Amino acid sequence: MVQELKGNIRVFCRVRPVLPSEVSSDENLWAEIEYPDNLDHKEIVLSSASENAMGIERKDEWQFSFDRVFEPNSTQAEVFEEISQLAQSCTDGYNVCVFAYGQTGSGKSFTMEGGSTEVTTGMIPRAVEQVFQVAEELKSKGWEYRMEGQMLEIYNETINDLLGKGEFDKKKHDIKHDLKTGRTTVTDVAVVPLNSPSQVRSLLAFAQSRRTVAATLMNERSSRSHSVFTLRIYGENKLTGESCDGSLNLVDLAGSERLEKSGAGNDKDRLRETQNINKSLSALGDVIAALGEKGEGKGDKHIPYRNSKLTYLLQNSLSGNSKTLMVLNLSPLASHLNESLCSLRFATKVNNTTIGTAKKQNRLANSS
């Protein structure tokens, strides 16, 4: 309900814990991060102390607030609890989009895909499980649902089919938007009927293994590409004659580090990767900014969806006809402070954007 009143993109912020491999006796390793809001968990404060040439200490402090801030000790279940209502609304005929943003190593893939145990399961498998559960519960009210899924990777502005059998970067995939139904399709990709949450888990594992194979050729490719899992759901109610279709897009964005930090300058391939990532992430920022202006009443504002494959693919998820959530992931390391601040500023811009109110995609059986 809050989302429908606000009509904007909600933003959660999650700080990952320190990993065992990072533990050291050096206290200066961790960034100074505080969470002053013990009640609503909506605020995060970063600070940094430095000495100037005269030896005088100077302390800088940056405060940010979001719809929800998760501290390093928060569990996957706690994060999903906040997302679950949103995920479930695709069974009501809404388009839903959840995307993870942050630099490489900030915990995006862990948040979205999770680990191998029940406790560490990520947002994608949890969301899928919930959609199946809700679909099962609605059977008693006359609803029958069918679901299908696809998983794509966008790497160097090329779309790859992670559930397909073909070679990467070889096939040409085009993005098509149907203006009448508001549905987005991608040509020549595997769309798999989804029958159970466990089947989805094995599909995700297959997609991940295809991504990892590519990584051996292109040093750690997975953090250099965006992955987009789409679940489409079609519902029909024999008792009332209603039907609906919704979609759930779960996106793990590529690492957002700037050029000098990524070490890409001396390596031709890495340079191209980083430039393409930055191009698509800044295109995402431009689209969000343009939507914000449109939301402020500048009606004829051009929205530059076509500037990148990512924004064009997600056009219907960002166009105000969707419930959209961004999960900003942050590293707790002091050496990442500048990257963290860049991410926090971008997320603040996103959080202040009004994109219009999400609409249901449903109709009565006898209407077109």
UniProtKB/TrEMBL annotation:
The keyword Secreted does not apply. ATP binds at G102, Q103, T104, G105, S106, G107, K108, S109. Pfam families: Kinesin (PF00225). One of its GO terms (molecular function) is microtubule motor activity. Residues 8-353 form the Kinesin motor domain. Keywords: ATP-binding, Microtubule, Motor protein, Nucleotide-binding. Belongs to the TRAFAC class myosin-kinesin ATPase superfamily. Kinesin family. KIN-14 subfamily. It comes from Cerrena zonata. This is Kinesin-like protein. PANTHER family: KINESIN-LIKE PROTEIN KLP-3 (PTHR47972), PROTEIN CLARET SEGREGATIONAL (PTHR47972:SF45). The keyword Nucleotide-binding applies. InterPro entries: Kinesin-like_fam, Kinesin_motor_CS, Kinesin_motor_dom, Kinesin_motor_dom_sf, P-loop_NTPase. GO terms for cellular component: microtubule. GO terms for biological process: microtubule-based movement.
